[in-house]
Amino acid sequence: MSSDNRLVERTGWAPVRHFAERSVLGLIAVIAVGLGFAALLLLVRFHWTPLQDLDHAVADGLNRQVAGSGTAVKVLQQISSFGGRVFMISLVTIVVAVLLIRRRQRLALYLIVTGAGAMILDPSLKTLVGRVRPVVESPVAHAPGNSFPSGHALGSMVVYGMLALALLPAVRRKWRPVFLGLIALIVALIGFSRIALGVHFLSDVLAGWLLGIAWISTTAYAFRVWRRETGHTPSRPAVEGLEPEAARDLELAPAEKAVLPHPWVKGAEILVGWVLTFGLLYGVGFTVTRWNPSWDDGFCRWLQTFRTPDLDKLSWLWSKAGDTHAILAISLVFCPLALALWRQWRPVLFVVLAMMGELTLFLTSAAAVGRPRPGVEQLDGQMPTSSFPSGHIAATICLWSVIAIIVTARVRQPWRWVFPVLAVLMPLGVAVSRMYRGMHHPTDVFGACLLAAAWLSVLWWVVRPNAHAVTAHEAAVENRQLVVA
What is the pTM of this model? Predict the structure, then answer.
């Protein structure tokens, strides 16, 4: 007996009939979208005058509105960056890693295949059509390559659309319209930003959206057929997501106990700890600024004698490991992976509070102390903040220390000790590089260590990041038990 017949015997004809009806309606919708894209492609390819006039009128009108406002340009560029290739590849990579950790390989494969298809379609069609980008009176942005279709519009429709389909089962029913509406708003704003920045025509963006809808519809249908062939019932509608039974695994922390009991009390404790840490930093910073020991500048001048072009490059790279972008990137990668592995919000809260507290303590204490930079050549030029304490070093200590604290309590394998080693080596390398480059005194490094030690001690006492700590295996077992129950 075939698998299809066995499926009918188990579930009856109704699910199969519903699946067929939805398939026909979906096919009609995909054909309609595909015809819309094909029509735009032909009209652009053969230079249909009414469409060209509309495209140029919209591009020129938006350019006149945007060109006079630097703030508007920056906002549009930021919105546009959420549809950029680097951001979207990073986003999909993190989600795929989370799905693989949660043992949802089929959904991960769907994201990989669908995303790869969009990356192939975009440059291929641009080369085929060969449309040049808009030429406006006051250019505010530039983009390489051809114009049709918009890669940002196509990519954002595919990436955010497929993520919505994959993650929808984890969203509560009452919030699904809000979730889908937010996704649609993001895609719409990215498309609008490309037109307003003068790097795409209206028809480029519309074509990108239509092609994106057609592509994710095709791959989603193929995914549903794949599920049916492996014995899953096809009766669930598309609004339930691609894999409704994965809801429990897709929830960020399904088995989480109370993250912070008595949150108002804990918030007050954190605030008091922040104030006391700031007071300690201000007292030490005021002292070293007024005292200004000669050996503080002397140590930096001694390091300066070792400068070579190769060491300058090495110190620049290591210094970058402690700047805002690197710290933020590592935090944004670690937090979702921590949620995927241990299914607990407490470690993520510990990371977020540590980094937010470090940043605010650094900015306020640096502004209050106002210590000048060392009296040596500064390879990084003029900096917007004062010298005490070092923000690069404090951020590096806080980040790698909290990662080490979290990982060592939840991993049993010997390789966990790599993270405490990194918690020592990374700040040490950043500290030496910052002093070598003439950006900080040794006492600024001491201030950074004082900031990190005091602030992390406050958070350790209040948050208790390793309370209820479990390994990834224990978290997965507990999750399966909850699903069965």
Answer: 0.81
For a pLDDT cut of 70, what percent of the chain falls above it? 89
DSSP symbols for 326-393: HHHHHHHHHHHHHHHHH--SHHHHHHHHHHHHHHHHHHHHHHHH-PPPPSS--TT---SS-SSS-HHH
| Confidence label for 408 from pLDDT (cuts 50, 70 and 90) | very high
Residue with tokens 């209206």: 202
Confirm if 210 and 37 have CB atoms less than 8 A apart: yes
Residue keyed to tokens 């390559």: 145
Closest of 148, 146, 476 to residue 341, by C-alpha = 476
Report the alpha-carbon distance of residue 46 to residue 126 in Å, rounded: 15
* Closest to 134 measured CA to CA, from 67, 68, 37, 42: 67
pLDDT score of 466 = 87
Closest to 167 measured CA to CA, from 85, 108, 237: 108
Q: What is the mean pLDDT of residues 108-126?
A: 88
- Rounded to the nearest 10°, the torsion over CA 156, 160, 161, 166 is 150
Task: Write out the two tokens for 288.
Answer: 């070293």
Asked if residue 161 lies in contact with residue 216, where contact means CB atoms within 8 angstroms, the answer is: yes
Residue 420 DSSP class: H
Greatest extent of the chain over all pairs of C-alpha atoms, in Å = 90
339-397 residue pLDDT tens: 888 888 889 999 999 999 999 999 999 999 988 888 888 888 888 888 899 999 999 99
Tokens of 49: 């005058």
Give per-residue pLDDT as tens, 455-478.
Answer: 999 999 999 888 887 787 777 777
Q: Which of 224, 200, 233, 22 is nearest to 126 (CA)?
A: 200
Quote the CA–CA distance of 160 and 167 in Å, as a whole number: 10
What digits encode the pLDDT tens for the residues 250-277?
A: 887 765 667 777 788 888 999 999 999 9
**Residue 96, pLDDT above cutoff 50:** yes
Other CB atoms closer than 10 Å to residue 408's CB: what's the count? 17
Helices 324-342, 472-484: inter-axial angle, 10-degree rounding: 50
What Rg do the C-alpha atoms of the chain give, in angstroms? Answer: 28
**Domain chopping of the chain, boundaries:** 3-250, 263-477
Q: Kindly provide the residue ranges of all beta strands, DSSP E only, lying in 127-250, ordered along the sequence.
A: none
Contacts of 106 by beta carbon, 8 Å cutoff, 6+ apart: 223, 226, 227, 243
**Residue 178 is inside which H or E element, if any?**
helix 176-196
Q: Specify whether the backbone of 236 is left (phi greater than 0), alpha (psi in -120 to 50) or beta.
A: beta
